[in-house]
Amino acid sequence: MAREASLRVVFGIAVLDLIGFGILIPQLGVYGVRFGASPFTVGLLVAVYSLMQLVAAPIMGRLSDRFGRRPVLLLSQVGSLAGYVLFAFADTLPLLFLSRVIDGVSGGNVSTAQAVVADITKPHERARGMGIIGAAFGLGFVMGPALGGVLGAWGGNLAIGLFAAGLSALNLINTWFFLPETRVPGSPSATVRTMKGAASVLTMPVVGRCVVLVLLFTVAFAQMEGTFSVFLLTRFLSSGAVPLEGGWLVHAVHPDAAVLKEASLRSGALFAVVGVLSALVQGGLVRRLVAPGHGPVASSGGRGGREAPVAVAGFALTAAGLALLPVAPTYGWLFPVMGLLAVGSALVNPCLSALVSLHAPSERQGAVLGAYQACGSLGRIVGPALGGLLFTRLGPAAPYGTGAVLVGVGGVLALSLVTQVRMSGAGAEQSS
């Protein structure tokens, strides 16, 4: 009973944290432009959170192993609270950056929550426990962007920041009063995301290919996330963007309040659609596609024979969505295009992570999953910055065309992954 109660508390912590994070996703570009940021600077604003999180994650993991999960959770929640309050009152671009740096450094909430789950579940229950964190991600990314759009239209970055800070305050109360310390001698170490660890798994069959694929996919998808608000402003809510000698200049560098309100609502609505579709696909469709008796027939000795073909389909849908995005004739056409991106990403991400888990050596599960997550974080650093640079130098369509090419290359590599998984499964059957 105590374990179930702790799992419910962890679920609540993760949901509140990810709603607060999701609120900001479609709004960072809107407020970056408000303070005079170029598309490249907006991309850096999005990327800096993941950069600081990647730097701080190993430190947070080691601290939680040494001093316990509860103190690190409380510390990270205080940091998130401070970052959101600063975001609320930021009236310059440097303050906006500082708020994201603070929140990124303290962004150990979810990884520490995963360590709590590992502490209180037995190995055969681990998948169910981690599924709770996955469900929290789904809820956060469904509710967050929609709330962010409404709050941004109503009260700008002040309303967004204070609401997210309120969620962090609730998390502090929840952790302080209801979550006991779970770290005991013999508990598994927290999964640590490091690029050094990522390099060490590249030679592993299947796992190494998945690490490369998640990096390609995340760079491409993050280019869209990092520049989409600016794209929306330039394409549908201003007089557009014009080529200059030093790059492209957004006409609406200082848009009026009505344009910002409209941008908040429209970007929030589109990202809400992405969140809902992703949750539906990950919650039901993926499970049916990869279950025995469904999807492509492939024998792999129980080691992910169906996940690989489903991931290929996800790459194809995502490439199509990125290619179609810059040529959408009206705002309404963005909804089906974003739908393609939502379904594609919802097929790719769980299938790749499942393949990594299935093919990683049992004694190195934590290190391999940490390396895999590190490559995802690297993609969320490189993607927004690259997308912003391409937008600034080559025009609004450049990030999406480049992203489509990257995902297309990933799709070709994923096709070879299908064969690699089958060979690995056949080898496992023979050895048994």
UniProtKB/TrEMBL annotation:
- Report how it sits in the membrane: Multi-pass membrane protein
Q: Where is the Major facilitator superfamily (MFS) profile domain positioned along the sequence?
A: 6-422
Keyword hit for Coiled coil: no
For this entry, the protein name equals MFS transporter
Q: Which Pfam families match?
A: MFS_1 (PF07690)
Q: Which UniProt keywords apply?
A: Membrane, Transmembrane, Transmembrane helix, Transport
Membrane-spanning segments:
7-28, 40-60, 72-90, 132-151, 158-179, 199-221, 228-249, 269-287, 308-327, 333-356, 368-391, 397-418
Q: What organism, scientifically named, is this protein from?
A: Corallococcus soli
Q: State the protein's purpose.
A: Resistance to tetracycline by an active tetracycline efflux. This is an energy-dependent process that decreases the accumulation of the antibiotic in whole cells. This protein functions as a metal-tetracycline/H(+) antiporter.
The family database entries (PANTHER family) matched by this protein are listed as: MAJOR FACILITATOR SUPERFAMILY (MFS) PROFILE DOMAIN-CONTAINING PROTEIN, MAJOR FACILITATOR SUPERFAMILY DOMAIN-CONTAINING PROTEIN 10
Chief location of this protein within or outside the cell: membrane
Subcellular compartments: Membrane
UniProt record similarity statement: Belongs to the major facilitator superfamily. TCR/Tet family.
